[in-house]
Amino acid sequence: MAGTSEQETFAYCDRLDHAPGEVVRLHTSSGSERLRVSLVRPWADGDTERIRHRHRPVASVPVQETSGTAQPIHVGSFGLVDGLDLAADGGLTVVVHAWPTRFASEGSTLLSLGGDQGTVGGTVELTADADGVLTGRVRTGGRVVEVVDEVPLQLRQWVTLALSVDPLAGSLRLHVRPLDRLVPGDRPRTTEASGDLGGLGPLHRLLLAAGGTTTAADGSPRGLHCYDGKLDAPTVLDGARDADALAELATDPRAHAPLAAWDLGSDFATTVFRGTTDGAPDGLLVNAPTRNVTGRWWDATEVDHRLAPGQYAAAHFHSDDLEDCGWTVTHELALPDDLPSGIYAVLVEGSDSVDHVPVVVRPQSPGGVLFLLPTFSYLAYANARLAEEFDYSGDVLTNREVIPSDRDKQIYAHREFGSSLYDHHTDGSGVCYSSHLRPILNMRWDFRSAIQDAPRHFAADLVIPTWLRHLGIEHAVTTDHALHEQGVDALAGHRVLVTGSHPEYWSKRMLDAAQALLDDGGSIVYLGGNGFYWVTSADLDRPHLVEMRRGHQGIRTWQSEPGETVMSQSVEEGGLWRLRGRAPNLLVGIGMAGQGWDDATPGFERTEASHDERAAFLFEGVEGDVIGDFGLVLGGAAGDEIDRADVSLGTPRHALVVATSQPHSAYYLASNENVPAPTPLINGTNNPDVRADVTYFETPAGGAVLSTAAISWTGSLAYDGFDNNVARLTENAVREFLARSTSG
Fold it and tell me: Residues 206, 155: one domain?
């Protein structure tokens, strides 16, 4: 459990986007005696030195002044079953298959079966200490009987565990049956202890991966002494059973008719795990343990649970999982019915600390330009600790001095706020879920990325709607979440879709909707790099939780375990869209080529194709043959992560590459899916494919696509108050695409 300090104020909202007239529900935690909460509208422009962020109040929403309340966070996932009614006086045996991945220094509980709320009657539990030594324990009426297996459990190896309680004989037996048999001498064994086991009473509650619960501020349960690892097929048998019975269960889960049993291998998109016997109510999974993972009976013949029923009957619990902070709602802000669509923020000001939570107001009516804020990507990077995952030292990825920003320092100081999809859990496994029901400290207008020493993600994307307002172009704003939830309906009536600077994480529903827009004559202006890259999902019943599986290809900080590349929520193969036959080139003409972060990011040079009459409108008023050899992110428009055209991956053959990046340095490395064999030809000095291509093409339905090929493009867009050739070229595209849709 952790809480915010007296000096800090943090907040989150229950949704990222709202319609006008809806109520924004704010969850805050602060030790400040006074909080001032207001709705503001942020924007971002630039001079010749840096991107500047400012905001102004929304006068139609009243300011609220209240006292602050510090609210705790309890991390760790677990399973909970209430409503059991298991008689224990005649004895019972609790069985579970386990695959531990970390032994916590403070110890952890694999399974606990007890009375109401763990306080009435006795408790039967299995725990592991910091060395992996397993203890079976029965607590009754102040008495404790323990049996200890002195042979430590092995990490990442399946073992069947059974704790057999015989009150009549006063015997407690712990059966341990290793299933992988990878360690010499690691054989089935039974350890026994004796004592007074009477008075165990009826058992009403089962906990998986936790030894007890407490209650969050919102009333939801939170686990204590959480376990890291997989659990599979928790089962309760009538009476005390011997090692022979355990051997049968280890090979055939149907060998004995249980009193109660549960299946963790179905309904993966939900928080439910099913009871499979009359005496087993369904259970609740709290804080999003990883589902659709290989279980005890996985035999490596199939990698899709639909083809191997029963082989994916486990869940992977983590002591640092977090789906929902569980803070109560502290403030409600009613949005006016006539509030224009756009990006707003709830500004929370404490006496010594300030937080500001983005809020998107969706359009009331369709038409014209729609800016799509890449909120799936924001969640993918939410509270990312990239300095732990990438080695920024050693003069490999950058020659810049990497200095953490104040928000970076907060992220490292508050690990209880959860991880990004780039981080590892404390047990070393990759994080594949990310939720917005928590403070996301790098989704703030004042976030500066350490390696770029510049705004990135949300802070950079604020430039785009500011630029559209600067031009007087009417536009609306929506989010990835709204596009995923509503599909093509979210784009209905809009003719030009403008993306953010790094729309990396997209779902099938989003891709289908964007393609439908093009098929209907709409247009896309892709203002970034490394877009449409990772297969991503969010269940419509839990839209706050996005999921991805890294697979075994692409630029990644971790890779999926064997057999665990299929998404739990959408039941589709994860990894790269390119490997699913939907490379970004098919939608926007370009796809990921490489990445780098040096201090000499180049601009783009016009190509011969740029003089084609089809592209003449793009260069009206654009001076010079070099575009964007300036910028407020890495010093140029062709930097950070970059994309290029490739007909073999789906770039339309009639597409025009109207500008291509000037030579990159050795700090720009090819994305690994583009390097099929070991080779020294991997960087901007020796590989011509490490480049960015500004690409334009028309669609059969009368629309068009402009793709600008680099994350740092927006940093050049904002340069000198939007008075530059990058801004002019981009403006030409937006105005022309709008004109075509109007005339059509």
Answer: yes
